[in-house]
What does this fold into?
Amino acid sequence: GDLLGPEVEIFGAAQRSVAYTRLVSLAKVDADRVVGASWVAAYLFERGEPFSDDSAHRIEAPLPTRGLNLSAVAVDPVRPGARRRAVFSAQRSGVIESGALFEIDLEPGGFGMVRTATVTEFDLQDVLITGEGLVVAVGTGGVVTATASGGQYRLFEVEGTAELRGIRETGDPGAPFIVSTDQGGVFVGEIGFSGIDLRPEAVIQGPATDTKVGALTVENPGPGFEAWIGTRLGRIFHRSGSGVWQELSYELTVGAEACGQPGDCGRVLGGRLIKDLAVLSDPSGRRTLFHVINECSGFGAIRLDDGCPSLLLAEGTAAESDERVFM
It folds into this structure.
């Protein structure tokens, strides 16, 4: 919501505080529908349709206590005969550590039944649903799993860390999940309802303030999957298919000081929290890494074949660097 211009009407509702308009997570339902989460509400958007501010498209988050904000949303993959749902995680907005999980049924006409929230004594930062219907959430207390809708949740601690940040499936049978941490660690391994087996794969080196991972994405799922992570201070790391992690060096364009930190010779380096990452390919097969930068009125784009970076601003302008910044 922060990138929308003043001429854009937000949700058609009276509530326009940042708690309602700042979308923190999106999840695809199908080719024409997307579920979104703001700090305090769930939304269902439909392609080509104006937003309908009704109970089928907007639901106040049934958070069990004040002081919680939504942190992520995941949607059930399509499974024959299984109902579909959106699962939301929540984290503290104040000083008292707490979290929650709740579900909303997805019907052909919009949102359906809201399932009772499950409360945890720690923050929940991210959530996903596997193709088998396993719900997995990660947070400051470890890993929370559940196999059935509305069923029992189980908690598992991860040895060596207490602050998990993000989770993705890898498609690799030998390491089906990858998990990032607030301490700069990356774990890979197995997660199930009966137990977990996560092993450390990499540790980001640097000041403690720069190791918090803000974004995690997986590309080319399967054995030899690729992964990307972005940190609090704008650093980006890449996992090759061989499992080796390397930092990607890049510069933003001059004039982008609000999106990074000035360096030598007037260059603007990374320096803001990377909120999200995605790799897209054009019809010719050329791949571009897009990254959302906190408190920036645009997002970055780095061509992966030659390292040429761009900054795509909210008004649609872009300025490219004249230097290749990595191989």
Summary: The chain is about 0% helix and 50% strand. The longest helix spans residues 18-21. The radius of gyration is 20 Å.
